Structure formats: structure tokens, C-alpha cells
Amino acid sequence: MWHIWVSSFGVTTAILVIGGYVLLQWQRNRHRYQLMQAAVERGITEFPNTPPYWLVSMRQGVAILALGVGLLIVGGAAYALTQGVQPPEPPSTQSIVAGSQVEAAGSQAPGHERPKPPAPNPAMERWHRAQHQESIGLATMGCGLIVILLGVVRTAFART
Where along the chain do its domains lie? Predict the structure, then answer.
């Protein structure tokens, strides 16, 4: 239970930090646009001590590209870590037949208790966990590729 709480806390923190940063950047850009619009209406065309907008756009594109590469690497690592996990062997047919005979006998005898469920299989749990991690790794790599494409486009059109 502890790892679920820690994981959800980490995900929530990441969403709030990244979302807060994006929101603050959006507001800053909006205010900068309104300031520029007011300056242009008054006839001011040159702004001292400001980098050209193509340079700002280029920096943003490179940062987005680096984020995409990071997502791609993390997703690839998560996917690669699951490749050594083998699926567990299925239960033998004798135990399945014997279990169904016990259930049939148990349903016919009045007052007979049902058999206990099978014990947890650590190999099966490890395999399921690996399958979940593999899915998350593939999704992260897909997101990384999309973000890389976004960074390439942003960088390519920085001059325009």
C-alpha cells in the first residue's frame, strides 16, 4: 500500500509542478504580447535588452526536443528491463481436473466447505508487473517521439 501512495504522490507532484510552470509561462507570454501590442500602438518598434524572438523560439524548441529525448530514453529503459521476465508455466492438467472434482463433490455434499483458493503465485505476479511496466514503457516512448517531433518543428520554424 505504501508504494501506491508514494507513486501517486510523485505523479501528483510532477503534474502540479509541470502544470504550474506551463501556466506561468503562458501568462508571462500573454502579458508580454499585450505589452508589445500596447508599445506598437504607441509607435515603439525597438525594445532594448531583449533577445530576438527567433532565439527564444529556438531555445524553446531545443528544450522540447531534449524533453522528448529524455522521455524516449526512460521509456526504452523501462521496456528493456522487462525483456528478461518469462511468463510462468501454466498449472498442470491433473491439478485442474482434481480441483474440478473437489468442487463437484463439494457442491453435492451438504455442509461441505468449499476448497481454499490457490496460493498466490509470485512468478505470475512478477510477470503481470512486467507486462504493466512494458506497456508504460511503450506509451512513454510514444509520447517521447511525439514531443521530439514537436521540438523539431518548433526548432525548424524558429526563424519564421
Answer: 1-50, 51-84+123-160
